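Quick start: what a row looks like.
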Amino acid sequence: MDLRFLGGADEIGRSALLVNGSLLLDFGLQTSTPLRYPLDADTDPDAVVVSHAHLDHAGAVPALLSGDARPPIHWTPPTRALAMVLARDTLKLHGNTPQCRFTETNLRRVTQVSQTHSYRDPFEAAGHEVTLFDAGHIPGSAHVLIDDGETRLLCTADFHTDDQRLVAGTRARPEADIVLTESTYADTTHEDRDRVEQRFIDSVRTTVWEGGTVVVPAFAIGRTQEILLLLADSDIDCYVDGMGVEVTRLLRQHPEFLRNPEALKRASANARTVTGRDGQRERIADTNTVIVTTAGMLNGGPALSYIPEIRSHPTNKIAMTGYQVPGTPGRELLENGRLPLDNGVVPVSAQVEQYDFSAHADREGLRSFLDSYRDTPVLAVHGDDCEGFADRLRTDGYEASAPGVGDQLTVG
């Protein structure tokens, strides 16, 4: 089996792997400025398999449908629905700039060639047998097992071994001849999720009791729903704003991919939806309440309508729920207590807190997963220190390595 790493190797973002020159696994964006695409953005595969909907894995897929190219795109139903939402948002933000390499026409073509699959239901793609397994990351996320008749390659994609409120942790351990594993948090131990949730709820309740407003910036896919579920279970009323509203609606249409569909239904009913019309956001920001809103790193979205309204009062709170990439406004707020806006950088007197609601496996989770593959060669990708992780695996007796972007390997 021949592998070519077009992106996402020894880096996080723009994941893309070409198998045997014909089957493309993921085709993501790195959401930097400017946007970064995988190598060979004009790649013409015979078929595409998408592991999950996040931009770093699916964001550039529509660009594959330029010219006469019409490769079938294989994914789970939630991944298809969510990837289209994010693609339209990318087009809205960058469609009139050279950064965006696809058009509305490309998006329509995606719907024409899309083929959806359930977990553990094998299908043929570019002459390979492919099977998707629940990866426990976000609804519809998948480990991808690729069999070319001689070698079985398991691509973990992003995964979590612990249960979350929205989805259960991965239980799948399919037989494989080689494992390609993510390593995002290979050198990190997540705080116990129950403790994180309790600290978050205690903090929110304290701020509301003191008369303050809590703004909770959250990623639209997965994180928004996780926070809504937690708030509803804790009997805390809230507002929800941004892309997370549409994503929640879409996820409820795929209950078989949720851990507890009824709980998400109750959480949706508990959250009042913000339309943003007629100064509604400004009025809500002046209310003693909780607001769950896009975007998670404060690089756009309704969050930037609320924070300027609440930033000056130390009773108010901004509860960050995701990792803040260096260089983003969210990272600047966490480290320096100020927020870059269009009209300049402003100081923030409101309290700023950070909570680890990660949907990735940490050091222990990665090791527990890979423990089933001790006699299987491992390739480490999708991390800030893939070579360091591979080196630690080798120390523990694994046959492990960390390819780089542009590398070509023959395995099996």
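That is the whole record. Residues 191 and 365 are 12 Å apart (CA to CA). The chain has two domains: 2-187+359-410, 193-354.
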